[in-house]
Each structure stands twice: as C-alpha cells, then as structure tokens.
Specification:
By secondary structure, this protein is α+β, with helices and mostly antiparallel strands. The protein has three helices and eight strands. The chain has two domains: about 10-145, no CATH class; about 155-185, no CATH class.
C-alpha cells in the first residue's frame, strides 16, 4: 500500500479563457472545464517526448497522468503570473491533488479545482460584459474578484529621484539625474 506524501492539496495558480455564457476553457481552448466537477488530467498524445520523435499516445495511458517527460497534466504556476495586467484572462487559485509533479515554475497535477478567481478585465459591454463573470460565479460556485490595477509608471522626475537614491547607480547617471532635476525646477 502506498501512503501519500500529504493529505492536503498543493496550491497553484493558473488562468482560463471564458466562453459565453460563462464557461471556462484552458488557455489553448482544447478542454472545457465542466462546472462543479473536478478537473481530471488526461494525455492527448499531441505533444512529443523530449528525447525522441515518437508520440506519447503510445507511451502511457490516461490513467497515469501526469508522466515525467510528457507535457500532460493540469498545469499551474507556483505563484500568480506576473503578466496578469496584460491580455484579459480569468486567473485562479487552484487546489491540486492526486499525482503531482513539481517543475521549475509550477506543477502538473492529476486533479484540480479552483478555489478563487480573479479577473483583470476592463468592462466593455460589446466585448467583455460583466454578465460573463456572473455566469462563472453561478456555474462554478467560486467567487470572482477584480485584480487591483497595476500602479501607474513612474514619472520622469520620479525616475531621476530613484537614480539619485540608488547606491549602485554610476556617478555619471547620478550627475545626469541631478542636472535634469535642476533643469525641471528652473522651468517651473
């Protein structure tokens, strides 16, 4: 009898695309995530082994997913992706369990279910209606929150002040920053 390493699920982060009227598909639009059911990984055989040119469809069955050397499994990052303020996506904190393989940036798991959703959308009634997210909350039984918008980029003057406060900035960079700050004060 094999005793599991942990009875607690591993927490990871991933994202989905939302289809009307509030259904989730993976980022490749291959797999529809059925509401209120765990996601079970499967190998599609679409990816190739790392060291050969043979399809993995022959290498293993869907019952032993994920497998080392294959791309199969439910992918999740270890932390919320940093590019989360770009393309509109629905991010999720997910519970991962069953067979879980860890890799550099995250995990591949046998089973998963979302615990919480976040979105980064700016609502446009023609492209991205708020009702899509309401549909996700109702269908999947998981709360959807808005990610905080990214901070505005620093102004030119704020950048010069940062250069002056940076102990590793070169003397040339500091002189240039001082000159530019003096010049901006004179022009006011």
């Amino acid at each position: 009898m094999r005793i599991p390493d942990s009875v607690d699920p591993i927490i990871g982060y991933r994202y989905w695309k939302v289809l009307f009227p509030g259904y989730l598909v993976d980022s490749n639009k291959i797999t529809l995530f059925e509401p209120r059911k765990r996601i079970k990984a499967r190998c599609t055989g679409l990816f190739w082994t790392v060291h050969s040119n043979t399809s993995l469809r022959e290498a293993h069955t869907t019952e032993v997913v994920p497998v080392k050397g294959c791309y199969c499994g439910i992918h999740a990052y270890k932390t919320l992706p940093k590019d989360r303020h770009g393309f509109p996506r629905l991010y999720a904190k997910v519970a991962l369990w069953g067979k879980v393989l860890e890799h550099e940036e995250g995990y591949r798991a046998q089973y998963a279910y979302p615990l919480e959703f976040w979105h980064n959308w700016v609502f446009d009634p023609f492209r991205c209606p708020e009702s899509l997210l309401e549909g996700v909350e109702i269908r999947y039984g998981v709360r959807v929150r808005r990610l905080e918008p990214p901070p505005p980029p620093p102004t030119e003057m704020e950048l010069y002040k940062l250069v002056l406060s940076d102990p590793e900035a070169s003397p040339q960079a500091k002189r240039f920053a001082q000159r530019m700050l003096r010049k901006s004060r004179r022009s006011k």
